[in-house]
TrEMBL record:
Function: Small GTP-binding protein which cycles between an inactive GDP-bound and an active GTP-bound form, and the rate of cycling is regulated by guanine nucleotide exchange factors (GEF) and GTPase-activating proteins (GAP). GTP-binding protein that does not act as an allosteric activator of the cholera toxin catalytic subunit. Recruits CYTH1, CYTH2, CYTH3 and CYTH4 to the plasma membrane in GDP-bound form.
CDD domains recorded: Arl4_Arl7
Quaternary structure and interacting proteins, as annotated: Interacts with CYTH2. Interacts with KPNA2; the interaction is direct. Does not interact with ARL4A.
Annotated protein name in UniProt: ADP-ribosylation factor-like protein 4A
Keywords: Cell membrane, Cytoplasm, GTP-binding, Lipoprotein, Magnesium, Membrane, Metal-binding, Myristate, Nucleotide-binding, Nucleus
Subcellular location field: Cell membrane; Cytoplasm; Nucleus, Nucleolus
């Protein structure tokens, strides 16, 4: 379903501001990234297989209750260890990042933290807003949100990286809408600040 490998450098021109927002979905394998993508795309649970390359979808998302919408171009990139060096190619020119973590998988939280901090510290990703999706919050053994925040050391992401931690259940879609609204607000705020800085120069 939209799976494929391609030369990342050739297909990611920086998008002008009026086009769909370029959002990259990252996270360790089996965190639920593709489930998030297809829940957003089809508003239903789609049984998925581990992503070998990437999945991509353009999706219009409603924002709040005033009938506003935003177009998002999502890139869901495989999270297996051998694929993670490719993440950098996909995040170039990204407007926002969605980092999905499995709230039940305590043993891999340290690994998730390492990958999250590594990708946000890249020079080209400085200041790019991050929505951290604490997936599988419906399960009894899921870590509390405060514990997820502590284990991922979100407070150490730095003042230049705006982030929001969103509890979610990708299978039923709970929390995803709220998370995307927060991500959109962070992107709009960042663009406004960048425009103001340009005017001051």
């Amino acid at each position: 379903m939209g799976n494929g490998l391609s030369e990342p450098h050739a297909i990611f021109p920086c998008l002008p501001s009026f086009q769909a927002l370029h959002i990259v979905i990252l996270g360790l394998d089996c965190a639920g990234k593709t489930t998030v993508l297809y829940r957003l795309r089809f508003n239903e649970f789609v049984n998925t297989v581990p992503t070998k390359g990437f999945n991509t979808e353009k999706i219009k998302v409603a924002l709040g209750s005033k009938g506003r919408t935003a177009a998002f171009h999502f890139w869901d990139v495989g999270g297996q260890e051998k694929l993670r060096p490719l993440w950098r190619s996909y995040t170039r020119c990204a407007d926002g990042l969605v980092f999905v973590v499995d709230s039940v998988d305590v043993e891999r939280m340290e690994e998730a933290k390492t990958e999250l901090h590594k990708i946000t510290r890249l020079q080209e990703n400085q200041g790019v807003p991050v929505l951290v999706v604490a997936n599988k919050q419906d399960l009894r053994s899921a870590l509390a949100l405060g514990e997820v925040e502590r284990l991922l050391a979100l407070s150490e992401l730095g003042a230049h990286t705006p982030w929001h931690l969103q509890p979610a259940c990708a299978i039923i879609g709970e929390g995803l809408q709220e998370g995307l609204e927060r991500l959109h607000a962070m992107i709009v705020k960042r663009r406004k600040m960048m425009r103001q800085q340009k005017r001051k120069r």
